[in-house]
């Protein structure tokens, strides 16, 4: 992972933990699933969001994404894992 990606990821993880309760309260007690997914995507650092959408929406394999964004495959895997963790965290909050 390139140093600036690592720094950016650490910053966004810190922001996500700090701002998550504030964002979750805005959604109310029983928000629709799409609103929950929007929140999960908003809590991701922009690079991870881009990689996750390339993987899920464009259905690109990790290797192709890594070449397209000029990182190694491990960074792509970490970004997808961050996105899935964000979705799981938000979904558990409202179950």
TrEMBL record:
One annotated GO molecular function is: DNA binding
Instruction: From the UniProt record, give one GO term of the biological process aspect.
Output: DNA-templated transcription initiation
Q: Which Pfam families match?
A: Sigma70_r4_2 (PF08281)
- TM spans (from-to): none
Which InterPro entries did the record assign? Answer: RNA_pol_sigma70_r4_t2 (IPR013249), RNA_pol_sigma_r3/r4-like (IPR013324)
According to the entry, every stretch annotated as the RNA polymerase sigma factor 70 region 4 type domain falls at 35-78
Per UniProt, the keywords (alphabetical) are: Plasmid
Q: What is this protein called?
A: RNA polymerase sigma factor 70 region 4 type 2 domain-containing protein
Per the UniProt record, the source organism is Sphingopyxis fribergensis
């Amino acid at each position: 992972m390139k140093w600036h990606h690592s720094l950016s990821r650490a910053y966004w993880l810190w922001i996500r933990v700090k701002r998550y309760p504030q964002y979750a309260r805005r959604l109310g007690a029983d928000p629709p699933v799409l609103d929950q997914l929007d929140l999960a995507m908003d809590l991701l650092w922009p690079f991870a969001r881009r990689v996750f959408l390339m993987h899920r929406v464009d259905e690109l394999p990790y290797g192709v994404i890594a070449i397209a964004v000029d990182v190694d495959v491990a960074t792509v895997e970490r970004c997808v894992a961050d996105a899935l963790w964000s979705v799981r965290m938000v979904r558990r909050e409202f179950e």
